[in-house]
């Protein structure tokens, strides 16, 4: 009996333990990471340290929650794991401004210096003598420090005011940093709290880059010149970053499962505290109101400390309103092409040739034609045309060139699928989703990517010829391609959904087929089956265009160290070009027509002009606070963005978004009546203040815009600005008068100030909503 009772007791205890374990697991699984913004000035007197106050506030709603990060620089507050109920309870605590759920961000994934005429700025950078004092902080997947792009030969001591560290970890010791790569840290608490411990068999729990993306972006921004650089022989030449004399600091905030906002904020906090002058983030997580956007919040504080924050616009184009990182204190960068191509031709059995692109470098196909088959006819799968893993029938593709449709799985993986099924080569055809945009890939088998039109023509040949054949011929590297640049179809587009009156993107920079340093951990395709290892890789995305602008901002900062982030961005924007030398507008790959400011912002960067812009549109933190007041933000929302406790907008002051001193114009008009009629005209006024950063001179204004279905009148008052000295400021008003047009109508134009030497241009976008 005793034994039986003991057994029952033991069974009961075990059952309770299982129940408790299950309950804890459910509670843990119901938790998510939140970023808690605190009003620093409201800390009760009984606390001496803010961290203690944060901990006490947290303990009041949860016995088990732990602080992941405590933030003190770019935000005031902390991040932690909470249930939804605990988060709601914490939001009601004294001194808590907001409790925002964590957001998972994604990465937005050489001839560039010559194409940008950077050789013309080399002398200026040398004369400034401060080029090596500028530090570019790159928040990404880390760095492969052994690459020559980070060689510190010729660099003097690390700047005395640098406060950063070289964090050690797996495969990364203190000697991995040097006088070029002066800082390296990693941030994983948020990632591991959400995704579990890092799998160290697949990625290093250290600043080391196992992905390649971070090495590529940081070397693009500020890598040293490296001669004889190429990817498997393609794009051979000297690869160099935009600000080759700047120092680099890396902050690893992105991991195999993404980039989490609690880690990103911690990385931004470190970059500002360490002493970075420019911060580069090639990542995004959609768009949200600024007081809920961690990158926007971190960037506001960085801006106040004089740090320019450059972010990628996103790769969700060509659909409209697809931008990330649209806060006006962030420089938002879209992508364009270079004047370089990597042609690979499909030669059909009927004698017709179609041009595609490829970075394949292995054994070529023979010149003798091989049988050609459409993947959709060599599968039992409904999605077989996409060449997904295990969808091709080997008997039907063996020894043949296979035509695969682009989409769903990685472009390079499709070639591996073809090869695994016994295929000899691949033609990768764009569908309507990608149109004529071609992105070169280092394929594992003989392969080329073609546009939708060529793909459709090849499919037509396949369906009409009983014995279709083809071969692929590789053309190597070609330069001086015209027209160039053209806007990349993948580059995310405006209008700005958060604040339509702020035109985004700000500008575009090279982002297609960019050569830069690469990790030693994976091959150029990033696939596990790719055993090749390369020192440089060619990839595309606004992830690549962003560090171009980050590096150029560092270059300008080295020449003009007293310029604010807004002044630097203004210089890059107002000197950008939106048309080719023949006067035609920069083309959009997606449409084949001229791009609009919603596609390219102010246009394509032009570094030599940006160094000497003539005039700039400057902005201070107070201007941005007025902007937030114009958005009718509450005191709590302003405090979350700008860390201003108890900030109230002046009820006697008239705030207007259109008065933000931005280097572009986005003008919103009221729409016509429901039937599309209405003859009344509307006038919208924007006020701007130009600061002279050059010699004395007289600037005269010209402005025009075109609208389908109506005429727009643009009046600039005064239309002439006279400056007698550098630093002088002059204001002007622009009146846009237009008829009432149907909702969705748009118009585009440009306002230009010129003194005969400088061209200070601002794009104009008109919308009817």
UniProtKB/TrEMBL annotation:
Residues 131-592 form the Peptidase S8/S53 domain. It is found in: Secreted. Its main location: secreted. The keyword Plastid does not apply. Residues 659-765 form the Subtilisin-like protease fibronectin type-III domain. Residues 199-214 have a biased composition (Basic and acidic residues). Residues 385-458 form the PA domain. The active site is at 140 (charge relay system), 213 (charge relay system), 543 (charge relay system). PROSITE patterns: SUBTILASE, SUBTILASE_SER. Pfam families: fn3_6 (PF17766), Inhibitor_I9 (PF05922), PA (PF02225), Peptidase_S8 (PF00082). One of its GO terms (cellular component) is extracellular region. Residues 33-108 form the Inhibitor I9 domain. CDD domains: PA_subtilisin_like, Peptidases_S8_3. GO terms for biological process: proteolysis; system development. One of its GO terms (molecular function) is serine-type endopeptidase activity. Residues 1-28 form the signal peptide. Residues 196-224 are annotated as: Disordered. Keywords: Glycoprotein, Hydrolase, Protease, Secreted, Serine protease, Signal. PANTHER family: PROPROTEIN CONVERTASE SUBTILISIN/KEXIN (PTHR10795). Belongs to the peptidase S8 family. This is Subtilisin-like protease. It comes from Rhynchospora tenuis.
């Amino acid at each position: 009996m005793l034994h039986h009772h003991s057994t029952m007791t033991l069974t009961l205890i075990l059952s309770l333990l299982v129940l408790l374990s299950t309950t804890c697991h459910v509670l843990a699984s119901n938790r998510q990471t939140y970023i808690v913004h605190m009003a620093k000035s409201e800390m009760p007197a009984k606390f001496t340290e803010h961290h203690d106050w944060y901990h006490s506030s947290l303990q009041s709603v949860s016995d088990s929650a732990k602080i992941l990060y405590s933030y003190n620089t770019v935000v005031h507050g902390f991040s932690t794991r909470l249930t939804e109920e605990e988060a709601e309870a914490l939001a009601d605590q004294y001194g808590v401004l907001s409790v925002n759920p964590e957001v998972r961000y994604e990465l937005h994934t050489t001839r560039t210096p010559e194409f940008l005429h950077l050789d013309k700025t080399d002398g200026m950078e040398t004369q400034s003598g401060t080029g090596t004092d500028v530090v570019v902080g790159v928040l990404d997947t880390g760095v492969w420090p052994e690459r020559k792009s980070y060689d510190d030969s010729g660099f003097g001591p690390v700047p005395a005011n640098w406060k950063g560290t070289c964090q050690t970890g797996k495969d990364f010791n203190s000697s991995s940093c040097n006088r070029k790569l002066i800082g390296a840290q990693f941030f994983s608490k948020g990632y591991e709290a959400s995704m579990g411990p890092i799998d160290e068999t697949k990625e290093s729990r250290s600043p080391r880059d196992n992905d390649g993306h971070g090495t590529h972006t940081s070397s693009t921004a500020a890598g040293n010149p490296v001669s004889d650089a190429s990817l498997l022989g393609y794009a051979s030449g000297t690869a160099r970053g935009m600000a080759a004399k700047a120092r680099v600091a890396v902050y690893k905030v992105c991991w195999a499962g993404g980039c989490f906002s609690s880690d990103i904020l911690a990385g931004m906090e470190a970059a500002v505290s360490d002493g970075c002058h420019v911060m580069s983030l090639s990542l995004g997580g959609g768009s949200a109101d600024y007081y809920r956007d961690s990158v926007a919040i971190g960037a506001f504080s960085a801006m106040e400390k004089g740090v320019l924050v450059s972010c990628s616009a996103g790769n969700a184009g060509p659909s409209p309103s697809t931008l990330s990182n649209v806060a006006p204190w962030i420089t938002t960068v879209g992508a364009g092409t270079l004047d370089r191509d990597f042609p690979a031709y499909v030669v059909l059995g009927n004698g017709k040739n179609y041009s595609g692109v490829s970075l394949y470098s292995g054994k070529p196909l023979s010149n003798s034609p091989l049988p050609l088959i459409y993947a959709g006819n060599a599968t039992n799968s409904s999605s077989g045309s996409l060449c997904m893993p295990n969808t091709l029938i080997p008997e039907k593709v063996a020894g043949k060139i296979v035509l695969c449709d682009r989409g769903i799985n990685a472009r390079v993986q499709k070639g591996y699928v073809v090869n695994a099924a016994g295929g000899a080569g691949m033609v990768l055809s764009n569908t309507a989703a990608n149109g004529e945009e071609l992105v070169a890939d280092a394929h594992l088998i003989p392969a080329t990517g073609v546009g939708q039109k060529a793909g459709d023509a090849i499919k037509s040949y396949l369906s009409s010829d009983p014995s279709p054949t083809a071969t692929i011929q590789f053309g190597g590297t070609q330069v001086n391609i015209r027209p160039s640049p053209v806007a990349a179809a993948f580059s995310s587009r405006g209008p700005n959904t958060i604040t339509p009156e702020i035109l985004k993107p700000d500008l575009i920079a090279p982002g297609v087929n960019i050569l830069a340093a690469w990790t030693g951990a994976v091959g150029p395709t990033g696939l596990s089956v790719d055993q090749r290892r390369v020192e440089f890789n060619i990839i595309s995305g606004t992830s690549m265009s962003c560090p171009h602008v980050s590096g150029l901002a560092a270059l300008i900062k080295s020449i003009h160290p007293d310029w604010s982030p807004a002044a630097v961005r203004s210089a890059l924007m107002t000197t950008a070009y939106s048309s080719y030398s023949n006067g035609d507008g920069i083309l959009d790959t997606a449409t084949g027509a001229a791009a609009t400011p919603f596609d390219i912002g102010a246009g394509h960067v032009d570094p030599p002009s940006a160094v000497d812009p003539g005039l700039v549109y400057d902005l201070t933190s107070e201007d941005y606070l007025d902007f937030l007041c114009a958005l009718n933000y509450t005191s709590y929302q302003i405090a979350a963005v700008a860390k201003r406790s108890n900030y109230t907008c002046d009820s006697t002051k008239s705030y207007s978004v259109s008065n933000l001193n931005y280097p572009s114009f986005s003008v919103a008009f009221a729409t016509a009546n429901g039937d599309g009629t209405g003859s009344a005209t509307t006038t919208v006024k924007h006020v701007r203040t130009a600061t002279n950063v050059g010699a004395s001179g007289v600037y005269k204004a010209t402005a025009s815009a075109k609208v389908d279905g109506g005429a727009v009148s643009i009046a600039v008052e005064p239309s002439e600005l006279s400056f007698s000295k550098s630093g002088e400021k002059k204001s002007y008003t622009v009146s846009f008068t237009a008829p009432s047009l149907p909702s969705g109508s748009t118009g585009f134009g440009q306002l230009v100030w010129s003194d005969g030497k400088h061209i200070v241009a601002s794009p104009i976008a008109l919308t009817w909503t």
